[in-house]
Amino acid sequence: MALKILRNDNTFTLEGQIDATTASSFQTHFNITLNTLENLTIDINKVTQIDAKGMNAFKVIYNNAKSWDKPFVIVGLGCKDIYEELLSIT
């Protein structure tokens, strides 16, 4: 299933899966987006699956946000699990 990205200001709503087929383009898209915006919020409420490659993409985006000193927020059902995983790498 494709990953659909909808934008409302600096909040991006994701629909679909973040997996081996979509993780690379997801990561590239949000690294570029993070570089051009002051802050970034990703809403994962409509994400149906995140596999290991998808989680790795979140880690790369998170690490870039930290190194570029940019606020990066994940909201929605399951965000706590992602935050716990991200905090375990710091």
Automatic annotation (TrEMBL):
Domain of life assignment: Bacteria
Every STAS domain range: 1-90
Naturally occurring in which organism (per UniProt): Olleya sediminilitoris
InterPro entries with a match to the protein in the record: STAS_dom, STAS_dom_sf
Stretches of the chain forming a coiled coil according to its record: none
The protein, known as: STAS domain-containing protein
